[in-house]
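re: that chain from earlier
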Amino acid sequence: MRRRSVLLAAGTLTATLAAPLSRAFAASSAEPVLEHRVERAYDGQSYTDLSAEITKVRGLASGTVLATFSTTSRNLAMTLLSASDPTRPSTDVTACVSAGRLQFSVRDNGVVKQNHLTRTMYDDGIAHTVAITVTSAGTVFYADGRPVFTTGQANFFAGASPLTALNIARNLDSDHPAGEWFYTGTIKRVAVYDRALSAQEVAAESARVDLADLGTISSILNSDVPAVWLTTGDSITHGALWTNGWRSYSEHFQERVRWELGKPKNSDFVIDTGVSGSTTDDLVAKFAERVSAFRPKVVSIMLGTNDAATASITPGAYRANLRRLVAHVRALPGSAVPLFQTPNPVDVNRWPNRAALADYAQIMREVAAELDVVLIDHHAHWLATNGGSVPLGLLGDGLHPDQRGHLLLAKKMITDLRVFDPASRVCALAIP
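^ sequence. v structure.
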């Protein structure tokens, strides 16, 4: 079975998405049976042959494969590490980056014993660490120190035998004696352990560690269990009037998750409870009807545009409200995840009563950092992509994003939650 058949059968981050490394992540006590720390840039033709060390991994029924890498292109299959039998067709154990997704597969003479891909993507040019642990209980994918996918299948190097070739950045197959699935980008480290590392050990071995909530959101995206996503806020989230008949950012996100990520994600639901004119005071007061009633797994909050124009909602009151909302979300049944989104900047010449909006966006950043909340920073992103000025062409009335502004909001949200695919209709959409 070729990789394309296997794939078809299987189906710029802000700083606040990563947790700082600290003493909470103590160094791992495990010693790898295979360790390759030669940082190298691969060009889609080069590779590193470690076949002389194949006996170190051959026959392992459980353990961990770990790699730290960054990509420079998106290909259907790019090998991080492959152990194979080049004399037999489709006999290999591979860890790959496949069209941006993480993939781990075990095949023995064409029989697929294990093949899984994440829906979340890691081909953004940023250094990522992936770890795949296998025990008799199943397989867990970790990305940047957090578990993001779990399956009950449990096959490792012992699932394909005999294995005689071991390569970084390519796979050897009987039909491709010179190699296939070559990698483009940098691979900094590859290691194999003869036991499954714990979550704490994986974090200690990772180049960076994501916020726990970002790992949870990734797990929800990679899970086949239906989930409710809730976006709430004011008229911007509501998508009122100024989208001119086009989709709001929440609706674009819904299309990306419920349709483009494929079944069974179409059984997820994205619910928009944004209400025009809303403030954090309103959401605190009506949390039960606007949030709790829908039993969400993820709650996105974009508020501040009206707070900045409401005399009674001082910066201190806004800060306190954000903290209350985070506590309310985390107290929901099922341990829901809060998600902050700063509102877009506005034209203060037309809306002078929103002149303090930048200060409110900064407060949201500070609360996110304080409470380890994932933050999608539209306010900073809009300014950064327009030379520090408010992109007036994305605003319908100087305050509300028009259809182009909503698309920019959606693409930033999709990118930061690691499901941006330039081949998708939503991500490739351009509005004339």
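The first strand starts at residue 18 and ends at 19.
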